[in-house]
Design a protein that fits this description.
- By secondary structure, the chain is an alpha+beta fold.
- It has 5 helices and 7 strands.
- Strands 5-4-1-2-3-7-6 form a 7-stranded antiparallel sheet.
- The longest helix has 10 residues.
């Protein structure tokens, strides 16, 4: 189990159990502490101020190049916003896209084979919806071996 901290305060725990698709990238569901429940809704606005750090099962800091928390409720709210008519794309969007581009990641994505289409659901069987946790933690390690 890994723990997420901000200024020496425990915000939550994660097992980083999501499938690994890219080198040095890890992700997993985040179970917040009561303090985390109060601070994490502001994580998308005050990411830098939180100074997030990940600690391993031994309590030692895991060196990360990038570490962030995704809030599903915030993402759903933004997805449902109606854009204003004739509103230009924000200038920061170009910077965000340029910052997110990583040639190493692009090359690796090109090597991933296409996956087959999932089987059609059987209409006679009720489909169970997975209950997604509100928060997910995502990170890029400095050293891929830091988390086995």
């Amino acid at each position: 189990m890994y723990t997420l901290w901000s200024h020496g305060r425990l915000l939550g725990t994660t097992d980083l159990a999501w499938a690994r698709a890219l080198p040095r990238h890890r992700a997993g569901d985040l179970q917040p502490t009561p303090l985390g429940e109060t601070l994490l809704p502001a994580a998308h606005d005050s990411h830098a101020e939180l100074s997030l750090e990940l600690r391993g099962p031994d309590g030692e800091v895991v060196p990360t190049e990038d570490l962030w928390v995704q809030d599903s409720e915030h993402l759903l709210a933004v997805a449902h916003e109606t854009p204003l008519p004739d509103e230009p794309e924000p200038e920061w969007m170009d910077d965000l896209e340029a910052d997110a581009w990583d040639p190493e990641v692009d090359a690796l994505l090109d090597e991933i084979p296409d996956l087959p289409d999932p089987p059609e659901p059987d209409d006679d069987e009720p489909q169970e919806a997975r209950e997604w946790p509100r928060y997910q933690v995502m990170l890029r390690l400095i050293d891929d071996a830091a988390i086995p």
